[in-house]
Amino acid sequence: MTHPSSQGAITVNLKNHYLLIRHGHSQANEAGIIVSAPRHGIAGYGLSSLGERQMHELLNDWQWPTPSILLHSDYRRTTQTAECIARHFKLIMQSEKGLRERFFGELDGQPDRRYHDVWALDAQDPDHCHFAVESAASVAIRMREVIDTLEAHHDGETIALVSHGDPLQILLTALEGKPLNRHRDRPSLAPASITELTDQR
């Protein structure tokens, strides 16, 4: 039976086992707004009360390998998510800017329905920067660089990466070898969900 917080697994050629974790439901989700700029996301908009409950339930019913390394985006919602994981498994947290939210430029602070305007443009061109957004292609590069760096320095670890919905969708699309303009073809990653990257060797 599939755990409600499981997003399945994809098989890739990696030396380490990765748990890609989307942060729990946040105050930005609750308010229905886009919070993508560091000046807003680092200091504010942490987990909502629902997000805190989600993390409590996730950790109490943990069904994945125990992580040995924990990296997280430095935004408040991902930091608080990582804090829950760190306390539970007695891990040291490592902040990683490469895991940050995708920057949505002029749409930052606007209603979250505006995501769809960007995604429609992504479907036409993953390199676009309309509304001064960070392109999907750029997100894929920085997210993959995080994994490449970990692969260069670790072997056989279970590494938890706490990030955001759009960056994780884009990373998974890239790892599956699919065109980045199709990143919204994947089922949306739920808050407090985990996607495993398993070794194909």
Automatic annotation (TrEMBL):
Pfam families: His_Phos_1 (PF00300). CDD domains: HP_PGM_like (cd07067). Residues 181-201 are annotated as: Disordered. InterPro entries: His_Pase_superF_clade-1, His_PPase_superfam. PANTHER family: PHOSPHOGLYCERATE MUTASE FAMILY PROTEIN. This is Phosphoglycerate mutase.
